[in-house]
Write a structure and sequence with these properties.
- The chain is α+β, with helices and mostly antiparallel strands.
- The protein has a domain of about 100 residues: 3-Layer(aba) Sandwich (Aminopeptidase).
- About 30% of the residues lie in helices and about 30% in strands.
- It contains four helices and seven strands, in the order E-H-H-E-E-E-H-E-H-E-E.
- The relative contact order is 0.15.
C-alpha cells in the first residue's frame, strides 16, 4: 500500500536508500535527515508499506518538477511497486502544476532501463548522469 511518509519512517527510508546495489551515494551525508523531513512536510515523499514494513519510497520535488528519489528494498524488486511509486511521484508533480518532469540516473544501470521502459526520454546529461524527462500525460 502507498501512503505518505511520516517521521517514524525516516530510519527505514535511510536504510533502504543506503542499501541499494546501484546508484550508491558516494557520500551518504549528501542526503540528510533534514532533506527527508522537508519532503515529509511538502507532500513529495511516499512509501510502500507491506506487513508493517516500508519496502520502497519515492520523493518528488514540488519546487522544480524533479523526481528526487525512487528506491526499493532489493527483496521486493520486480513486483510493480517501483512503477506504482513512480506514478505517485508523477501525480505529486502534476498536482504542483508541472507538465514536464525530470530526473537523473547513472547510465548503464537497471534504473536507466526502468525509466526508458516507463516512457521517459533521455534529453541530455547532468554531469555524468543521464537527464530524463517525461510529460504529465505520459505518466
Amino acid at each position: 500500500m502507498i501512503r505518505r511518509a511520516i517521521e517514524s519512517d525516516i530510519p527505514r527510508i535511510t536504510e533502504t536508500r543506503n542499501n541499494v546495489r546501484e546508484n550508491k551515494l558516494i557520500d551518504p551525508t549528501r542526503v540528510t535527515i533534514e532533506d527527508v523531513r522537508w519532503f515529509i512536510s511538502n507532500p513529495g515523499i511516499y512509501v510502500w508499506e507491506e506487513n508493517g514494513r516500508v519496502v520502497g519510497f519515492s520523493a518528488a520535488d514540488p519546487r522544480n518538477g524533479n523526481i528526487w528519489a525512487l528506491f526499493m528494498d532489493q527483496a521486493y524488486e520486480g513486483r510493480g511497486i517501483g512503477r506504482a511509486l513512480l506514478k505517485r511521484a508523477c501525480t505529486v508533480l502534476g498536482e504542483a502544476g508541472f507538465k514536464r518532469m525530470w530526473l537523473t540516473t547513472d547510465p548503464g544501470t537497471r534504473a536507466e532501463a526502468f525509466y526508458r521502459t516507463a516512457g521517459w526520454q533521455v534529453v541530455g546529461h547532468r554531469g555524468s548522469e543521464l537527464l530524463f524527462e517525461t510529460t504529465a500525460t505520459t505518466q
